[in-house]
Batch of 2 targets.
Target 1
Amino acid sequence: MASKVAEKLLNAAVESFAADGFNGSTTKAISDRAECTEGSLFRLFGSKDKLFEAAVLKAFQTGRMPNEEFARILENDDNFERGLRKAMLEFYERLDDRYIRITTFAALDRPDSARDLLADTVPSRTLSHTIEREVYRGNLRDDIKPHTAALALTMSLWQFSLCSRVMASEFKTTSREAKRAAVKNFVEIWFRGMRKNTPKTPRKNR
């Protein structure tokens, strides 16, 4: 019985925190939304802070593509650029609105805990390992840290995803074709910056 009440409170907390953030949500409003008592909320979660952390973690776990699946898409294509485009498109398409909103609030309200959670859940960690491999193979620049390079791409798409949800309807990227084109452009720009410069062969004097 307690687990069902906890699940109801957690789902209500995700909805509330995603809509209004930590400061804009009250334990009374969350418990009312869950049709539970505030006493149950504090008995099961201890505090509003602990409930917020649990809600953010739940949103992280359910509102995005799992890292294992992201890695599988990357590894199943022998062409790194093509595989990255597929993986990033799938990642972008599966971002849940509540996930986008609650992580934004978490970054503002609880930056330390948000950073720790994001470090383990966004695909930048998975991508950085693949970049290391491509650097070792001589396909990418070796003067940029793989994790920095991975963050540059994933955070660009993250910001684009967030902005596209708050834009006026006429500016939103809603069709699959538009999303595919946007992701393709982001990946291509990233590759232009990450490709190794091929040294020019000096011209022989004749």
Target 2
Amino acid sequence: MILVNTAEVPGYRVSESLGLVRGSSIRSKHLGKDIVALLRTIVGGEIKEYTEMLEEARQEALQRMAEEARSLGADAVVNIRFATANVMSTAAEILVYGTAVRLE
């Protein structure tokens, strides 16, 4: 499955658009990691616990979107975009979406 954030895939021609596909993941760290993250905000710097959490959520959301595209018979997903939202103070949603297409 080819995944790109552009409207075209170099070397291919889009022969058919199959529609919007999406994937999402809502993640939260456990209380222990939230406490460590809170302490990091006091001294500053990267909050690695949340960086890891969001990377895991992005990968899971991408995988879910690709699975939906495969179920439509797509070769690729173009125009991929990400969106994020706080679901609770300790949980975040990652949404990824794009257009499933067949290529020639």
